[in-house]
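Ticket #4471: structure output looks truncated?

Reporter: J.K.
Steps to reproduce: submitted the chain below (276 residues) through the standard prediction queue, then opened the result file.
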Amino acid sequence: MVETEGWRAVLRRFPPRRYPPEANFAHVAWLHRFLDPLAATGFPAPRPLRVLNDDSMAIVDGAIWEVLSYVPGRALMWDPAVPVESAGSLLARFHQASLAISPADQRPGALPLDECHPLSAKSIADGFHRDLPDAGHFSAIRCVLHADCTGANMLVDGDPPTVVAMIDFTLALLGPPETDISFALWVTGRSEQTAVTLDYARLRAFVAGYHAVRPLPARAIKAIPLYLVGRGLQMLVRGERLGGPDQKVLDRVLWLHEHRNQLEEVVASVVGITAS
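Returned output as attached by the reporter:
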């Protein structure tokens, strides 16, 4: 935290082993170019502050540093006092803003779902890629996604408490908005951090909160459960690149794959169209 009179910001250092500058500077620059116009829309998120030699980022001592505005609030996590619907509503508001300002170019170094082919779940991955066209993935509109809109990155404030802001856009990338709903539900749709299964009531509430602000198309019924599987495949790819798959992620992917029909019924109960 950087504080001066009437001014607060977050100074962040990217660990160079995980984020070597030569591979990640363009990634962070792309994100800052998006966060600038996002701030102009009034959406509650960090904005780049040009206080590092008239820039909001720099490479110092072999590491990337950035300065972003401080956003007040506390992390949502699994606070039972906060309606899950408010988290879905905020994500919908973000997509409304993002659709109006998103760049045409993909984030450098991004890992879109249609490029995820983990060896540790090959048969499920093969089926996932076969189903993407039927879910309308390749014809869907695109915008910048938060891509990690979990309880840790959604901030709560007010009385009664509600979700009011988003932080940490490090994984942002271009993709269909419905993908971001699934990314959020990967964590927020569970009753606790260690759960393998999703809580259908939490899933329904999140999707309902989103749908009330930005009505979902019929394709969302099949797309959201499919993208939940895709999120797991994405995490498996990242794990394999670091040395091996995570068994908990494998268990979650298997459960999601086996329960796609039930998940489609939950989404359909919100969107108001019968799953088929």
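Triage note (M.O.): checked the attachment and the full token line is present. The longest helix spans residues 220-241.
Status: closed, working as intended.
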